[in-house]
Model the fold of this input.
Amino acid sequence: MYRKILFISDHGDPLEPLGSEQAGGQNNYVKQLALALEKEGYAVDVATHWNSLSTPQIEHFGQACRVIRIAAGKQEYVPKSKLFSMMPDFYQELVNTIPLESYELIHTHYWLSGLVGSFIQKDYQMPWIHTNHSLGIAKKEATGDSDALRLLTEKMILSSADHVVVTSKTEKELISKFVDKPSDIQVISIGVDKAFRPSQKRAGIRPYFAFAGRLQTTKGIYTLLKAFKLLTKKERLSSHSKLIIAGGGKDCIDQRNHLPHSKKLRSALRGIEHRVKFIGPQSQKQLAVLFENSIATIVPSYYESFGMVAAEAQACGSPVIASKVGGLQDVVKHGLTGLHVEHKNPEQLAEAMVTLLHNPAYTKTLGLRAGVYAQQEFNWSVLAYKMANLYKGACHEKEGLFTGN
Done:
């Protein structure tokens, strides 16, 4: 008999195709954690916003997991920046759709879901675990953009949940500085899917660097393109490396020439169009092939609580060049599994790319170490076991509170 728990991931549908709008690391994390917890004896329901007329309200995955979609008055795509005002309606419809009292525990993902978690905690007094995935204070420090409402709400959530799960020591340190009296904080990393494994590199492929993620400024896409322009000027005459970019919605890419429709991106590409290929969203197996056969995978983000792409790429034996920010400082080991560079610094990024391009033996060593390290550190079965123990402890704490023990 499975024990029932409820995930709330309002903007991150775990069955949404990766690489599309609002479908990135959080979606994959929620799906993979649910499937791994299933092996620990848990049946996981994931409540998320119903963002399409073409998807069913309830959809099964794994043996005992389900996605339950809640329209909250708008059964259509809504940007996560517009979801805050819908959360009270999301909660009321959730209460009317499923019996919340049937779950042992709730685990909320992202601050918007955490707001719903606070409603459930107040009305049902069940154990509440929260994972933020990204922090408003980290975004503020990295970009200068400040969302007062988000910061205030995050402080409430991070001091009200029974336990907060973070994915890196760096994130724990940041929360401890940001919140006066935070809830108990547990560091439990993120695992990688079994699709991400070293196999055998394909022969005869022109050298290339890989990028996978949303085509947004904060993901460092423009820093990367500037760096690659600099790289083309630094390369030896015999080198003709390429840059392959995965991500963005299918509608964002011109499939005839593998270039983006965005005028801003087109402008940034001027002069290197023949060396850069945009391939759109990819399956996990396709991403694994992309990472494994690359010189290195580039993760030039302005900020990351964890950095899922960096973990997945290393699991495929690809060294990673990553911004020295957030969780990337923990996920990528500088000089051992990849290289750190300052974020928003195309010159330093270009130098790191040149280093790996022109030193194949060193690059190979980094890749081999990356594969071993990732298989040890980002193992879902081990991480799910740790999470299940946290759940059990949280339930016992709540039972003791009610019985007076």
Q: What stands out?
A: DSSP finds 14 helices and 16 strands in the chain. The CA atoms of residues 136 and 150 lie 6 Å apart. The chain has a mean pLDDT of 91.
